[in-house]
Amino acid sequence: MKKKLVKGVTDYFKESFKTGPQHIFLSPGRINVIGEHVDYNDGFVLPAAINKYICFAVSESGTSQCTFIAKDLNETYSFDLNDDLKPTDIMWANYILGVLYQLKERTSNLKGINVVFSSTIPMGAGLSSSAALECGVGYVFNYMFDIGLSKEDIALIGQKSEHTFVGVNCGIMDQFASVFGKKNSVIKLDCNSLEYEYHKADFKEYSLLLLDSNVKHTHLTSGYNTRRQEVEQGLAILKEAYPGIKTFRDCNEEQVLALREKLGETIYKRCHFVVQEIQRVLDAVEALEASDFNKLGALMFATHEGLSKEYEVSCDEIDFLVDAVRQDENVLGSRMMGGGFGGCSINLVKKGSENSIIERIKAEYKAKFGITMKAYKIKISKGTSLYKR
Ligand code: GLA
């Protein structure tokens, strides 16, 4: 699939620019085993890059003009590096422009490029196609013009692009996973210090299966930013009551419970989820290290419960997908993944049972919602990189 993607992009580049590309780059999407909506709450997360990518074919343009062709959309966006870069009404271009805006602030080494890109990361499915795009663009310019950015810089620039040019106040998880991904490893990331460690993604006789509700989310309208405001308010109240608290990392469940009335029911639920979810990630890493997959699966179900009932970022379709596997003896854990309001569930399932699970749930899902569910068997792969031909 990777080869096909690369070939498709390379051929399209040749057709469009009448010459072959100088370089090919791949920037992956990500999964997250556990640790949802805690990256912007100073928690821990456990993501990994996957074998679904945006592929970029790139050459210098010879001028200060940049041309990006989005092959899948059959759309082109061109701009001059000397332009005053501002958000446009072409959504996908904003991810790119937001990165370049920051690169221009850091260096005068930039030159124009011609790019064709295409993706195997489904959009709006919670697999971070936007982070792959932002980080891919940062990586491409850094590689081609020796800007001297670290991987962490590339991830942070990607995140800021989303804040400033797209308007989603996302955390750092997606960009970090896309850039720092490592084959067969999950990343335990401390979202407060950005310290990270790799853990072997060895699920033994189990595998990770994604079920895609095919309900598309967009974080701009989905309440993502509202959740951020709610937890900010909650944290302010917690800090006031307990001067020792600086972040959610310092809170325990009792403290949140004790302030239930003051917080009000909605904000209480949000804070309660966050404090529990931060702990669940630590427990999940222990379970993974001990190959205790029953435990890991139970933690995933508990996360879903919290996301659905307390953080309220799930939706009927995703709740259905999780409920549908709850009694299945081949499934140890399941939960909504990513920002929510649609997208995928991530499931820890017995190897070999994937197809029968997919067939069964696909039929049930279609009967209930009239929507065709998709499914992805994923592999954990390396982060954004140059593709060696
Ligand atoms: C989106 C955001 C991430 C993270 C997740 C929820 O994917 O981009 O930063 O907050 O939602 O865990």
Description:
With 389 residues, this protein is of the alpha+beta class. It has two domains: 2-201 and 382-386, Ribosomal Protein S5, domain 2 (2-Layer Sandwich); 206-378, 2-Layer Sandwich (Alpha-Beta Plaits). It contains twelve helices and 13 strands. The protein has helices at residues 2-17, 91-106, 129-145, 151-166, 173-180, 224-241, 253-258, 260-263, 265-289, 293-310, 316-326, 354-369, and strands at residues 23-32, 44-45, 47-60, 65-70, 75-80, 113-119, 185-190, 196-200, 206-212, 331-336, 344-350, 374-377, 385-386. It has a six-stranded mixed β-sheet with strand order 5-4-6-3-1-13, sandwiched between helices. Strands 10-11-9-12 form a four-stranded antiparallel β-sheet. A three-stranded antiparallel β-sheet has the order 2-7-8, with helices on both faces. A hairpin with a 5-residue loop joins strand 7 (185-190) and strand 8 (196-200). Helix 2 crosses helix 4 and helix 6 (224-241) packs across helix 9 (265-289). The chain is globular. The two termini are 15 Å apart. The relative contact order is 0.16. The mean pLDDT is 97. Alpha-D-galactopyranose (GLA) is lined by residues 36-37, 39-40, 128, 170-171, 173-174, 338-339. Alpha-D-galactopyranose is lined by residues 36-37, 39-40, 128, 170-171, 173-174, 338-339.
Known CATH architecture of the largest domain: 2-Layer Sandwich
β content, as a range? 15-25%
What percent of residues adopt helix (DSSP H or I)?
Answer: 40-55%
Between the first and last Cα atoms, what is the distance in angstroms?
A: 15 Å
